Each structure stands twice: as structure tokens, then as C-alpha cells.
Amino acid sequence: MFIQTEATPNPATLKFLPGRVVLEEGTADFREAESAAETSPLAERLFSVSGVTGVFFGYDFITVTKEDGPDWQHLKPAILGTIMEHFMSGQPVMAKAGLGGLPVSGEGEFYDEADEEIVSTIKELLDTRVRPAVAQDGGDITFRGYEKGTVFLHMKGACAGCPSSTATLKHGIQNLLHHFVPEVREVEQVL
């Protein structure tokens, strides 16, 4: 098994490409070991590597976030070994019992019913133009809400805590959305 790695715009996050499907559908974001314990055997294993503070699964990639201190040259071999061992063991990435606890698209969204058409256009733009680009950097962005010209988005994976995430939101995504949906005045990040 050969696992490629790619740098992300977030220096604390590295993208691992195992050359196979990681998650068939959706994404999974783990910000602490406790959230991984019952849900994902692979995330639980990755959190056992000293210095790992976040794990994110996409369709064909895994992003791992590290704490300040250890550098990637010391962590990367342990993470690569953990990913390889897991896939060689034949264990699933996600525990079947834990899948029900994952947030699904649409969960926790808020907007006025009168804005349904605007929200539909925003979601389509996010899905077709923003999310594929963000996935290239090892992350994901999901719609959370729309209120009085402000779009609220949740950033996951490499995007969460990335130094350039504010610029991505304010200059890239905000400008794109405003261009196609003039009612959009601002884009804000929510946790």
C-alpha cells in the first residue's frame, strides 16, 4: 500500500491519500479523541499518535491536524504506519453503530422560508464551485444558515483553524456568492 501526502494551506494539517475510498458518502470531522472512540476505529487509532489533535475524512483522503510543537517529519511516519495498519487489518473506517451520530447535510440549518430560493442557489454554488476546491486542500465547508444578507458556513478538516481561512471566506467565497446572488452581503464562519 502506498500512501501519498500533500501539504495544505494550513501548516498544522497534512492531507493523506491512501489510494482508496475512505468514506463513500459525506465527510466526518473529529476534533477530539473522545468523539472518535465509538464512531471511528481509524480516527481512534490516529488520535493515539502523540500530537494529533484533529482527524477529517473525505471521499478519498484523510487530513490530520497536529498540535503546536512536534513537526511533521517526526509525526508523519507514525501516522502513515497507523493508516496502513488500519487498512491492512480490514476494519471499517466508521463503526456502523456510530454512523447515526454523524451530522448530516441540513442538520442545524437556519433561514427564513421566504429566502428558500436564495438558499437553494447558495447551496448549489457551494456544492459545485466551493466544496470541490476546498476538498483539494483537505477540508470541507458546509452551509449552516442565511439571515439578512449574511451566509453562515462551517469549516471542517484542513479549513478549520487555517490561517488563510478568513481570506478564503471574505475574499473568495463572499465575492463568488455576491456575484451570483446579489442579496449576499457577508459570509461568516460558525463553529
TrEMBL record:
Top-level taxon of the source organism: Bacteria
Domain Scaffold protein Nfu/NifU N-terminal residues, every copy: 3-90
Any single Pfam family the record assigns to this protein: NifU
Matching InterPro entries: FSCA_dom_sf (IPR034904), Nfu/NifU_N (IPR014824), Nfu/NifU_N_sf (IPR036498), NFU1-like (IPR035433), NIF_FeS_clus_asmbl_NifU_C (IPR001075)
Family (UniProt): Belongs to the NifU family.
Protein name stated in the entry: NifU family protein
Protein species of origin: Nitratireductor rhodophyticola
Origin organism lineage: Bacteria, Pseudomonadati, Pseudomonadota, Alphaproteobacteria, Hyphomicrobiales
